[in-house]
Amino acid sequence: MNWSIQGAYHEMLGEDREALACYTKALELDPEFTNAYQMLSSFYWTRKQYELALENAEKAVSTAKIAHLDELNESTAILAFLRNEAAKKRFQPPPGN
Prior knowledge:
Oligomer: single chain
């Protein structure tokens, strides 16, 4: 079972407790699962729990493989950019921006 997809399903239905349990289960099974951290970041962001959103965004960036950094969603990159020096190096704007 893909726990992060299951979590997104519960989140879509407004079942926050179940969604959070699924995202947590996904990370228990694979603590390096970037997508689960992204989804948790978004989950917390939409609920105005910004500190938790930022923590999970930073984890998403730190667990992302270099080849897959372009797959990080925009909010994760922006949040991580605010705090994480490593993320700042990875997400430098193109020259002239």
